Amino acid sequence: MTQTATTETLRVPDALLHYEVRGQGPLVVLVGAPMDARPFEPLADLLAVDHTVLTTDPRGINRSKVDDPDRDSTPELRADDLARLITHLDAGAAVVLGSSGGAVSVLALVQAHPELVHTAIPHEPPLDQLVDDRAQLLAWTDEMIATHLSGDTMGAWRKFMLIANLHMPDEVIEHMFGGERDPQDLADERFQYTHMLKPTVEWVPDFDALRSASTRIVVGIGEDSGEQLCERTSIALAAGLGIEPTRFPGGHIGFAEDPEPFATRLREVLNES
What we know:
This protein is of the alpha/beta class and 273 residues long.
């Protein structure tokens, strides 16, 4: 059932954040990077029957405008944005689920403000520095960004899929990223490649701070993620925290592709706390 969403903005240092609130009850925050709030809407609707659900566009993406478009969007900055949003809602400590780059934002949030998060669920964070082939991955990332900046968008996305170990036919990549595209999507893509991607994949968690935090941390991995890079980095994160990863239905964005089983599994995980 679709829940009514209240759409607001919040002024934070150097940005005006777009955010949406659904439902009533304990606070759940759903966040991505570079993914904006839209793909989280079906999951947010399912959770909003008994939770207050906050979704947001990360700074520099879609409706969250930045004052300085040449400034990098670091995990620390995005974590500060989340802290300000949670504090602004004044609904108590939150469950915060982050996907991909948003999962890195969530980890940075726990390091800086553990009192605001009672359960953190980083789902498949791309923490390249935690795996043995980190030097090769970071070199490939530099090549991918250079390819994008040269104007070869399709070549950059092919490199992205190779690095992530995502198998996608060329015709699918052509359909997704070729031809006429929405100007906002192009602007978001450029911001991702130039100001978000490297600060995210090069970020290194402070394991001592995370282990000592009062926050419960659940490292999520998609059941269908196979040998993908984000499965490897998530396994390394869980090992560094001394916990076992938790499997969720679907793959890297299972919450968007099939939200109902994901919501069911999420509720099970929360009830275990």
